[in-house]
Request: fold
Amino acid sequence: MNTSSGTGARVGMGAGVGADAGTHAGAGVGAGAGVRTGPAGVRGSAEAAGIARVAIVGTGVIGASWAAHFLARGLDVVATDPAPGAEERLRADVAALRPTLAGGSASGARPARLTFTADAAEAAAEADFIQENGPEREDVKRALFARLDAAARPGVVLAGSSSGLATTVIARDCVAHPERVLIGHPFNPPHLIPLVEVVPGENTGEDAVRTALAFYTSVGKKPIRLRRELPGHLANRLQAALWREAYSLVDRGAATVADIDTAIAYGPGLRWAILGPFANQHLSGGPGGIAHVLAHLGPPTEAWWRDLGDPSLTPELTAKLVAGVAEALAGVDDTALAARRDALLSLLLAAKADADLP
Reply:
């Protein structure tokens, strides 16, 4: 799946899904179903913000999921991807996702609200908000954002779904309105996972940040604003820290892939799905809270840090990881497993929405 750059070159668009790829759009409800709150002071609806039509630039896994989510929230969507057959694939993907959008929102996802054009500039010109989903390549992003910037109306936010590229980098060739360019990085699949990381760049204006936070909140997402640009943003860096030690443990023969998955899925991962690491650490300190934990477990934790591994993804380690996953999931159908995971995730999201958690 391709997109055209400002020079007319056509490059792959739909395939770029970032570091959180590998998640399947299985059974489940729409992203953040029942989610009622967002960042402090951010309320309202997309319509109140003047956003009625969203452009989806790139219609691969992430783009199709975004399209289904926005449609289910009652918005019009104009999608663009010049790859042959892109429209047919997108409509099929959206139709497949529609039954998973529960909570009374699926009725808004009518096919008539989805239009398609192969011209990214045409889509941008029609939109009140632009969600880009191109491949994770700096040259492609810069050319694409320059074209979108030249075509979109002033004040329309240009949000990129990049998993790790900096806003300042992708906006480098935006000469019309660089102040409206930012990262709006979802977690895959966007129609299910509430998190969106909003990352402004050096030239991003506060109006664009506020608009993005309000818009994402209005469509049921849980946006967070990053205070500085970092490779991988925030959530992917946290994931990478865990993967780093997990890979090291396998490499050193200290644990199997199955052991590590069990340790997380049936240990701290259960608590992390309810509250974040700091809130959980605070609760584990009893009446003394996190101050007690840091006073008593801080020195041992520092010793653990010094013993953490620093692996390299050599061919040998890669083979160990691949073989370990194959052994742990032998006889398990990946598609069925993803569907069961997403169905359970949907139940968890619904329960969290009713639990008044921070």
